[in-house]
Structure formats: C-alpha cells, structure tokens
Amino acid sequence: MTGMLEGRIVLVTGGARGIGRGSALLFAREGAHVAVADLSLEGAEATAGLIVQAGGKAIAIGVDVSRAADVSAMIATTVKAYGRLDGAFNNAGINGRMADMGGKLTADWTEEAFDRLVEVNLKGTWLCMKAEIQQMLQQGSGSIVNTASLAALTGFRTTAGYAASKHGIVGLTKTAAIEYAPTVRVNCVCPGWIRTDMVAQTIEQHGDALLARVPAKRFGEPQDIGEMACWLLSDRSSFVVGGVFTVDGGQMAG
Ligand code: NAD
User: Fold this and answer.
1) Residue 193: CB within 6 Å of ligand 1?
2) What is the spatial distance between Cα 104 and Cα 159, in angstroms, rounded to a whole number?
3) H or E element: which one contains 42?
4) Is 64 close to ligand 1, i.e. is its CB under 6 Å away?
5) From the CB of 228, is ligand 1 less than 6 Å away?
6) Could you state, in chain order, the average pLDDT of each consecutive group of 10 residues for the chain (254 residues)?
7) Using an 8 Å Cβ cutoff, are 153 and 244 in contact?
C-alpha cells in the first residue's frame, strides 16, 4: 500500500517538538520526504533523526520564521536537497506565556510582546507562504497548511496578541487560497487543546476545567493535528480550498 504522501517533498516549520514533530513523523510514515525546520536546529535534527531511524527521508534546517532571509534560505535548502516543494505545514508559533504575557488582559500586554507574537505567528506564516507559493507556482502545483488555533475563531481571555495573530492567519489563508487556486491550495487547521510543551503548564494547572469543555473527553495529541494536515497536503483533499478546520474534540461545537 502506498502512503498518502508517497514521494512528496514536505516542509514542516516548528518541527523540533510538539505538533510539528508529531506531524513530521506522520508525514514520513505516509511516504513524504520531510524538511524539518525550527528555531532549534538541534530539535529539528532530533526529529529528522527519528524519521531516518525509522527508514524515512528527512533533513533538518535551522530557521527563525520571522526573518525573511532565514525563510528564503529554508526554501532554497529544501529545494536544493529534494529538487522541489510539494507541501508545506506552516506550524511554528509561540503563545503569550512564552512572551511573559501569561494571564495578562489586553490592556496589560506590553508592546514588545504584542509585536513578537505578531512577528512570529502572523508575519512568520506570511513570509513562509510567500516563499513557498513562489516555488510552487514555478513547479505548477503545491499544497500549504497553516496552523491557526481555536483562538483564531473566538475570544479567549488573556490571549490578545495570540488571538490577533491567529485570527490573521485565517485571513491570510483565505486570501491566498482564492488567489492561487487551483495551482496552489491553501488551508488551515485550528487545533484545540493539544498535549505539547506549549500548553503543558496550563493543562497541569487547569486540566479538569479545560476537559469539561471537550466533548471527546481527552486532550489532543500532536498526531491528531498531523492527520488533518496530512490529508490537506495530499491529493485526497483536492477540492478543499481556503478551508478552516477545527480539530478540537468537539470544543467549538458546543
Ligand atoms: P511547541 O511550543 O511545542 O512547538 C512549537 C515549535 O515552534 C518549537 O519547536 C519552537 O522552537 C518553534 N518555533 C517557535 N518560534 C519559532 C520561530 N520564530 N521560528 C521557527 N520555529 C519557531 O508548540 P505546539 O503546541 O507544538 O504548537 C505548534 C503550533 O500549534 C503553534 O502555531 C501553536 O500556536 C499552535 N497551537 C497549539 C495548540 C496546543 O494546544 N498545543 C493549540 C492551538 C494552536
């Protein structure tokens, strides 16, 4: 049986850990040759190592997605190694807690923290899309999946810069989707609570209260998001353009 991404060249940002790592491993199991990119080159190398150990193909790239020169180099390295770029999972991101804004209401956010969230999450996603789309147009095809959040769809207290950046990703996704279809398809996934380092502390402190709002009665795992991203990157979703998909155990349904 061939995998859903057999022989496809797929880039994953934020691939050093969490959703990015889980997805990169899944894409490789589905036959993709993966470029694992992250701010942490060491972490990206570890993910690539796991893929190679399991018999797959992977390279690791160090990148700060908020820097245009880094992003151009990331795409150039991927194309140099594999000859093309069929799919990209733009997943790197940070939350408010990582900018020391945990628990802060909108008016208490600092300008620096707000800028950083927008720079990494929103501008970073746009910079990646820009470079990826240029490459994919040259080739004549490609599929892009962006990681947004439930905070891209509704308000959550104390998430000002995060929610703003993630809402922006939905707008970017829809705009590029209608501009570049059918040559390049662009979609995004909105994860609910997924068990990763990013939210470990929140889950530890408020786990029961959070779970009470999740009809599936469990937190998500990175591969739950990887499954959706894999399908969106594959030809199996060829009629899916500009979609915004919650993967949240039913949280947004109620
Ligand atoms: P994580 O913190 O475990 O992993 C994020 C990865 O992104 C890290 O490896 C980090 O080094 C990398 N990264 C951060 N800034 C970067 C930069 N400037 N350039 C390149 N890489 C950078 O987080 P995660 O939970 O795996 O989150 C992945 C994505 O999913 C993020 O966009 C996040 O906002 C989103 N998300 C997560 C959850 C959740 O519950 N975990 C929910 C909704 C959305």
Assistant:
1) yes
2) 8
3) helix 41-53
4) yes
5) no
6) 95 99 98 98 98 98 98 98 98 97 97 98 99 98 99 97 98 99 98 97 95 98 98 98 98 94
7) yes
Angstrom distances, CA of residue 5 to CA of 27, 87, 88, 122, 201: 7, 9, 12, 27, 34
Rounded Cα–Cα distance for residues 8 and 105 (Å): 43
The span from the CA of 107 to the CA of 21, in Å, is: 34
Q: Is 234 in the pocket of ligand 1 (CB under 6 A)?
A: no
Burial zone of 204 (CB within 10 Å; 0-12 exposed, 13-18 middle, 19+ buried)? exposed
Catalogue the active-site residues: 162
- Residue of minimum CA distance from atom 2 in ligand 1: 198
Q: What is the DSSP letter of 234?
A: S
Pairing state between β 9-13 and 87-90: parallel
For ligand 1, pick from 38, 90, 127, 146 the residue to mutate: most ligand atoms within 8 Å of CB. Answer: 38
- How far is ligand 1, taken at its centre, from the CA of residue 1, in Å? 32
| Two structure tokens written together for 86 | 């069929």
